[in-house]
Amino acid sequence: MSSAAFTKHRSNLIIHLILIAGSVVMVLPFLWMILTSLKTTTEATQIPITILPAEPSLRGYADALRQSPLLHYYGNTMISAFMKTLFPVIFSSMAAFAFARIRFPGRGLCFFLIISVMMVPNPVFYTPQYLMMSKLGLVNTVTALWIASLVSPFATFLLRQFFLGISKELEEAAVLDGCNPFQIFRYIMLPLVKSALVAVVIIQLLWSWNELQWPLIINSSPEKLTLSAGLATLVSMFGTDYPVLMAGAFMAVIPMLVLFFIFQRRFIEGVAFSASKG
């Protein structure tokens, strides 16, 4: 083996070892959650710590379904996640196309203002959003979970990077064929950015599915909470039944795991391409 080949082989080995170590670090909490959900309360809290349950039990899952309206949480979360994905994908894709392909006065300033919103922590918006929901009479409603999140600055930025990478010749040919800007956007541009749209859909779903603070602020009725907020109610100041909590958390994360495994290739393609264009 030549010196160059040996060096390349060693570099690849080091990279793979680092990736394996990182994967183990990320997977361990998930495995610990599953194992804890199968333990008894005594096993989950005893010292020294036990890794494997002595007698695996599904009691935690049964108790989680009995102690909380988990099906209501699922329904509210699905509605909220669907709306927080559908509208940002529609509106952000239109805005991204305009910023990438249409010249108009103040385009750079408007895009800068939209991107600057990404630098502001979400809790800053909670007070004015709550006041708006209160004036509209939407407090303690499922509508309040998603109505304030119709546009995503991140989705606008991500999709704009894709639109910038599309050849101008396609757009010019469409103009010569008599297409207006909306027809160019709908029939020419959108089919070319499918990977980006899938990436945006998955990111929006993950974000809305796991959102905790806003549902707890805007809704107090148990029937109007989402999964993340509902699971938070299982934590008591006097004691927490960790198998029940972990069972509920595992049931809450299953849909997102399935979704990611189905679309992981397009998700990785979208994020990688956007990073290369940025």
In short:
This protein has helices spanning 3-37, 41-45, 59-67, 70-101, 107-116, 123-135, 143-146, 153-164, 168-176, 181-189, 194-210, 213-218, 227-232, 242-277. The chain has 278 residues and is an all-alpha fold. This is Carbohydrate ABC transporter permease.
C-alpha termini separation: 39 Å
Supply Rg: 24 Å
pLDDT averaged residue by residue? 83
Written as H for each helix and E for each strand, in order along the chain, the element string is HHHHHHHHHHHHHH
Fraction of residues in helix: over 70%
The structure class reads: mainly alpha
- Based on DSSP secondary structure assignment, what is the total number of beta strands? 0
Shape from CA axes?
Answer: flat
Largest sheet: none
- What proportion strand? under 5%
Description:
The chain is mainly α. It contains 14 helices and no strands. The protein has helices spanning 3-37, 41-45, 59-67, 70-101, 107-116, 123-135, 143-146, 153-164, 168-176, 181-189, 194-210, 213-218, 227-232, 242-277. The protein is flat. The mean pLDDT is 83. Its main location: membrane. The chain crosses the membrane at residues 12-35, 78-99, 106-124, 144-163, 184-207, 244-263. InterPro entries: MetI-like (IPR000515), MetI-like_sf (IPR035906).
Write the layout of secondary structure elements.
Elements: H1 3-37, H2 41-45, H3 59-67, H4 70-101, H5 107-116, H6 123-135, H7 143-146, H8 153-164, H9 168-176, H10 181-189, H11 194-210, H12 213-218, H13 227-232, H14 242-277
Helix pairs in contact: 1-14, 3-14, 4-8, 4-11, 8-11, 8-14, 9-10, 11-14
Subcellular location: Cell membrane
Domain ABC transmembrane type-1: 74-263
Family: Belongs to the binding-protein-dependent transport system permease family.
